[in-house]
Specification:
Strand order of the largest sheet: 1-8-3-6
Distance between the termini: 15 Å
Structural class: alpha+beta
Radius of gyration: 19 Å
Order of helices and strands: HHHEEEEEEEEHHHEEHHEEH
Strand content: 15-25%
Largest sheet: 4 strands, antiparallel
Amino acid sequence: MSQKQSFWYLENIDLATMLCPSKVGAAEHALVHKAFKKGEYIFLPGQYADKIFFIMEGRVKIGTYGDAGKEITKTILSNGEVFGEMTLTGEDQRRNFAQAMEHTKLCVLSVQQMRSLIRDHSSLSLFFMKMLGSRMLEMEKRLESLVFKDSRTRVIEFLYDLAKQKGQRVGYEWVVRKFLTHQEIANLTATSRQTVTTVLNEMESKNILTYDRRRLLIRDMDSLSMEAGVKND
């Protein structure tokens, strides 16, 4: 189980059960579950922010637009993760966009519903504190990487982190299902698609990893961590 996905379980929170109508009592009629097609926007920058979203199935890209409308990808979230949480801190206007990367099902809650759940489940408050702290540290790490590391190292470090956070260990190897496209990795690492392709092919030639459209297989995590200049836990 990935580090991000395990947040709910670290606090003994079963997301599906918590959002089950039998658990929210009088509010059950107000629960909303929505489905989004691949490429469909869930929200856009500038829109009113009054909802929090839980991913029940699928993947969601969070990003913004830079100069000349250039898309900047901030993160990609999957099953069991939450987004739109800044509404709990008083944000009333979206700064980012959220887009479904595949057929995606979401549980949508209002700020009032979320606050009610937090009152009923005290562990939720700690969960949100940990989640916000984790995302802040992740953004700081990405910023430091952009300033101090070259494009090759950024891509390798991203692959290492992706395996640790989203991958499943199988013996001595790590498998990441639903591997990202080269362009998506380029957007997340502020590099080019060509650089990503070159790095992936280099790592494959060294027998450190193999990949296709469906999965990334890390054959030698120790070697990948050395290439990235990080300590393998």
